[in-house]
Amino acid sequence: MTGERLYGIRHHGPGSARAVVAELERQRPSILLVEGPPEADDLVRWVADEGLQPPVALLGYAADDPRRSAFWPFAVFSPEWQAIRWAVTNGVPVRFFDLPYAYRLTDARTPDTPPAAGPPAAELPGAGSPDAQLPEPRADEAPGAGLPGAGLPESPAELPSTSDGPDAVAERAPGRVRPVDPIGELARAAGYDDPERWWEDVVEHRGMPAFEAIAEAMTAIRESSPEEPEDLVREAYMRTVLREVRRTHENIAVVCGAWHVPALARKVPVKDDAALLKGRKKTKVAFTWVPWTYGRLASWSGYGAGVRSPGWYHHLFANASDVVPRWLVDAAGVLRAEGVPTSSAHVIEATRLAEALATLRGRPLAGLAEVTEAAEAVMCDGEPLRTELIGRRLVVGERLGAVPDDMPAVPLAKDLAAQQRAVRLKPEALERSLELDLRRDIDLARSRLLHRMRAIGVPWGEPDTARRGTGTFREQWRLRWLPDFAVQLVEGSMYGTTVAAAATTKVTDAARDAETLGDVTALVEVCLLADLADAFPPVLAALDARAALDADLNHLMAAIPALARTLRYGDVRRTDVAGLESVAAGLLTRVCAGLPAAAGSLSDEAAKELRTHLDGVHRAVGLLDDDDLRERWLTTLASVSGRADLHGLLAGRLTRLLLDAGRLDAAEVRRRLRLPLTIGTPPAHGAAWVEGFLSGGGLLLVHDDALLALLDEWLADIPADAFDDVLPLLRRTFGAFATGERRAIGERVAGGTGRGDEQPVELDHERAALVLPTLNILFGREVG
Amino acid sequence: MTDRTEQHLPQAPAAEDVSGKHGSTALRPHAEDQYADELALLAATDERPRPPGWRLSPQAVVTYLLGDGAKITPKYVGPRRLMEVAVSTLVTDRALLLLGVPGTAKTWVSEHLAAAISGDSTLLVQGTAGTAEEAIRYGWNYARLLAEGPSEAALTPSPVMRAMQTGAIARLEELTRIPSDVQDALITILSEKTLPVPELNTEIQAQRGFNLIATANDRDRGVNELSSALRRRFNTVVLPVPASADDEVEIVARRVAQMGRSLDLPEVPAALEEIRRVVTVFRELRSGMTEDGRTKLKSPTGTLSTAEAISVITNGLALAAHFGDGNLQPGDVAAGIVGAVVKDPVSDSVVWREYLETVVRERTDWRDFYRAARDA
C-alpha cells in the first residue's frame, strides 16, 4: 500500500492507540510523522531502549533560560507513543512535525514571556491535550493561559504547588474558540461521559474505518467553528514538512490530533503557508526525556483538563478482554492491601451490578462510571475513604516512568542519578518516610544528598520535624519524587555540573544576597548539613559582615544557638567547623556589648522576645565550653540585672540565670525577690518578675524551702483588690510547670516545712561505691 | 396477631385491599395510591423488558423516581447515578442498604422504590431496639396453635415473609437499630432466598421479584454494626444531603406543597423567600460556614436535615393560616427554626445566639427575621 494516511487520534486515548497500531501494521509506511516538537527528533531512538518506561515526557527548555520550558507527556496508552514504538521496532524513520518549540519561545508578540501553554495541540485535549500538547505562545492572551503542560514549567520554582497553574488554565479554557476535545464532544453529544467508551462502542465495535470516520466528523465540525490563530500557524508548518517529506517518500503515515486532519488534507498554496511562517526567529532549545507520573497526567493533581483516569486508560489498553472483572479484581486487591476484607463474592456481585447499571443506562459495556459506582456500592460499604483509595491507587494510579541511565541529560541530572545509585536511594512517586542513623556512613551520605538537593531547590525529601527525637544522630525524612523536579534539575544545572557544586554555588549566592542575619545563619546550618565545605568560608564571611551591620540585637542573639549547636555536635556529621568558633565568639562579644543598651524600657512583647533569646544564648554559652566567653556573658548579665528600668520579666529571668550559674548567693536572691514584690512595685511588674524568675520549671521551688516561703509570704501579702490583676500572670507561670511539679509545690505549701521532720537518709556507702567504676567509664574520668 | 393479618392468611393481602380500606381519608396516603396515575401512565407507556415480578422496567422506575420533566413529578432530587445504582442493585437480586444522616430521604426513596417495583410499599418492618425475630420471620397465632396444633393456618407471616410469598419488595427501616442476633435472621433469607419453617418441616421460597430494601442511619454507626456476613449481602448507597441550596429549596418547596395538601391546611402562598431563608439557615449551621464562605460558625448537635426544614415550613404555614394574616411571615418560621436548631438547651442555644448576632443581624434584608428570632 502506498500513499499517505492521516491518522487523527485522540491524545492519550487508548482506543486511538490500538487503532493506530493496527492501521500502521496494515499500511506499513516508509516514514512516520508525529505531532510533536521537531527538535526532539534525535530522542526518538531512545523509545527502543528498554530503560525508557512510560509514563515519560519530552522536556523542552530554552538553553539560556531553563525556566522557560514545556512538557509533552506520553503514557503507554498514548497513540503517539504506540505509533513511535511501532516505527522504532520496524525500523521506520520518525519525524516530529509540529511547529518547532524554538519558534514558540520567541514569538515576537510576547517577547519576554515564557511560552504560553497553549492548549496543547489542543485538538484532543480531553484526553490530554493539556499536558500533551504543545505549548503555544498566544498573542491574544496572557502567557501561560493555554497549555497546562507549558504552564507548569513556566515557574519552576513554584512547581511543587502546581495547582495554581492548572486552575488558571481551567478558568480560561472556556475562552478558547475551538473545542478542547473534539472527540470528547462528539461522545458527549452521543450521551457518553467517557469518550473512550464512545470510541469503543461507536468506532471499534462497528468495525468501521475509524480514521476516515473521524476525519469526516472533524471536517464537518471545523467547517462551522472558528479557527484559532495559532492552529493555523502550526498547521502551516505541518503542511510544509509534509510537502518536503512527500518529495522523498511515497508511503507516509501521519499521526496527529484529529482536529488537524482536515487542515492537513486540504490543498493550500505553498506561499500562503510560507507567509504565515515568515519572520519567526528561533531560540536555542534543548530537549530530553524525563520520567512522568500518572498522578501528573490526571486532572486532580493540578491539570485543568488532563486525563482524569490514566489508571483506567492503562487498564483499557492493557486488557482487551474481561475489562470489568479484571478491573474489579484489582479494586478488591487495593482494598485487601489496606486490610479491608473483600471476597471474590464481592467482585462477582460488583461485576453484576456494573453490568446491570450499563444495561439500565443503555450502554453496551460498563465504563468507568459503572465500575466505580459498583465498587462503591458493593465493596466500599458506603465508606468514602475506600472509594477515594480506589480512585487514587487505581483510577489514577501511581505509576512513575523511568529513563535510561545513559540518556543524554543535563550533567546535574546525571550526577544526581549516579549519587542516587551510590547511596541506594531510588526516586519514587509514592511518598514514603526514611529514617537515617547518621552514625552509619551510607545514611550520612544520604542525608547529605537530600540536604544538597534541598539547597538546589529540589525538595525531593523534606525533613520530618514532627518526629524529630532529641538525639543528634537521627534524621527523619519524607521522600517523594515529583516529575517537575526534572525542570528544577535543568534550572539547577546553571549553577553547577554536580550536585555538590550546584548546591555550593546556590548557597554562596544566597549568602551574598541575604538580607538579614537570620537568613545567613540558616545557610550556615545548610552548609554543615549538606557538607558544603567550599561554601562555608563565603557564608561565614557573609555572616560576619551581616553581624557587624545588623543593629538588631535580637537577630544577633537568634543566630548564636544554631552556631553553638553546630560547634558542639557538628562532629556527628564529621564536618570541618574551623572558623566557626571565631565567628561565634565574635557574635557573642557583640551581643555582650549591645545587651545593656537593648535591655532597657521594653514593652511586654519585646521583653518576652528578648527573654527567649536570652535563654537561647545562655544555653548556647553553656555548649560553647569556653570559660572566657562564659565569664564575659555572666558579667554582662550581672551588670544588666541590676538596672532599675529593666522589665520585670527580664529582671526576674536574669536573677534566675545568675542564681543557677552560682553568681548570686541565696541571700542576695532573696533580697532581689523581695524588692519587686514590695508595696512600691505595681503588682503586674511583680508578677512578671515572678514569671521570669520561675519560668522553665518549678523544681527550684520544690527544693528551695526558703525561696518557697518567700514566695508564699509575698503571695499572702498581695492586697485583695490587686490579687485579681496578678492572678492571670501567676497562673500563666505556674500553668507551665509540669503537673508533678505543681503537685509537689502544692504539697510543700500545704504541709508547711513538714520535710524537716523526716529522718535523714542513711547512706550505705559500700553499696553506693559499687557504681563508681561504671560512672568512671561513662564520664571518662575518676569520680569520687 | 390482629384479625386483619389472620383474615388474609395464608394469602398475603393485595395492595389494593389495604389502600381501599384507607381511601382518601388517610392522613398520609401510600406512595402507590398518591401517585397511582403516574404509575399507571408509566406502566402503559413502558415497553422495555420488565424483570420477573416487576411492574415496571428498571428504566421506568428511575424515571418515576427522578421525574421526566412533564407528567411524572420528581420524587427524589439528587444525583441520578444514585438512583440508577439503587435500581440496578434490586435488578441483580442484591438487597439494597440506603445509608445517610437522618432526613436525607432514605425512607422516602425506599417507599417509592417499593411502590414502583411491586406496587406495594406497605410490607414494612420498623427496626427498633426491641424488634424480635418474629417481625422478620413469622409468628404464631397462639389461639389457633393451641387449638389445632402447628399448621400453616396458625402461622402469622411477617411482612418479609409475605413479600417472599408474593414476590414483592420488603422494606426494613432502621436496620442498625435491630439487635445483631435478630439482624442475622436475614442472612438465610437474603442468600438462600428461602425461609425455613422447622416447626412444619417446610420452607417458604421467595418468588421472583422478592427483594429487600433496608435503611440505616449514619449516626447509628457502631450501635448494632452489621455482621460482615450480612453486610456482604447488601449493596450500599449513601444518600447525601442536598448538594446545592437551590436543590434543597426545591425539595422543601415541593414537599411543603404536597404536605399542605394532604394535611388540608388552608391555602397559604408558601413564600419562596421564607423557604430559602430557612434552607440557608440550615445549610449554614450544618456546614459550619456561611454560604459566602467568609464566616466560620459552630454547628449545633442536631443534624438539621432537609426533612426538618420541611417540617419547620409546614409548621410555619399552619401558624400563618390559623393565627397569622394568611401570609408566611418571618415570625411564623422563627419559632420552628429555634426549636429545630436548639436540641441541647445549653450548647445549642449558644450556637444559635452566636449565629443570630454575628450572621443574621448583619443581613439587612433579614431584619424582620432577626427580630422575630430574637424574641422567639
Question: How does this model look, in words?
Answer:
Chain A is α/β, with parallel strands linked by helices and 784 residues long. Helices cover 55% and strands 8% of the residues of chain A. Chain A has 37 helices and ten strands. In chain A, the strands form three sheets. In chain A, strands 1-6-2-5 form a four-stranded parallel sheet, sandwiched between helices. Chain A has a three-stranded antiparallel sheet with strand order 4-3-7. In chain A, strand 3 (56-62) and strand 4 form a beta hairpin. In chain A, helix 10 (229-248) packs across helix 12 (270-277), helix 16 (344-360) crosses helix 17 and helix 30 (666-674) runs parallel beside helix 33. The longest helix of chain A is centred in the last third of the chain and has 21 residues, at 604-624. The model of chain A is unreliable at 108-175 and 300-305 (pLDDT under 50). Chain B is an alpha/beta fold and 376 residues long. Helix content of chain B is 49%, strand content 11%. Chain B contains 19 helices and nine strands. Chain B has helices at 3-8, 15-22, 31-34, 36-45, 58-66, 80-91, 106-118, 133-136, 142-148, 159-166, 180-183, 185-191, 228-231, 245-262, 272-287, 306-323, 330-341, 347-360, 367-375, and strands at 95-100, 124-126, 138-140, 155-157, 169-173, 194-197, 202-205, 211-217, 234-238. In chain B, the strands form three sheets. Chain B has a five-stranded parallel sheet. Chain B is globular. The chains are: A alpha/beta (784), B alpha/beta (376).
Mean pLDDT across residues of chain A: 75
Count of helices of chain A? Answer: 37
> Can you list the strand order of the major beta sheet of chain A?
1-6-2-5
Helical coverage of chain B, percent range: 40-55%
Note the main sheet of chain B.
5 strands, parallel
Task: Give the neighbour order of strands across the main sheet of chain B.
Answer: 2-5-8-1-9
- The overall average pLDDT of chain B, rounded, is 83
Low-confidence stretches of chain A: 108-175, 300-305
Count of DSSP E strands of chain A?
A: 10
Rg on CA atoms of chain B, Å = 23 Å
| Morphology of chain A | elongated
**SSE class of chain B:** alpha/beta
Tally of strands of chain B: 9
Give helix % range of chain A.
55-70%
Largest sheet of chain A: 4 strands, parallel
Uncertain segments of chain B: 1-23
- How many distinct helices of chain B? 19
* Subunit organisation of the chains: heterodimer
Distance between the termini of chain B: 47 Å
Q: What is the percentage of strand-forming residues of chain A? A: 5-15%
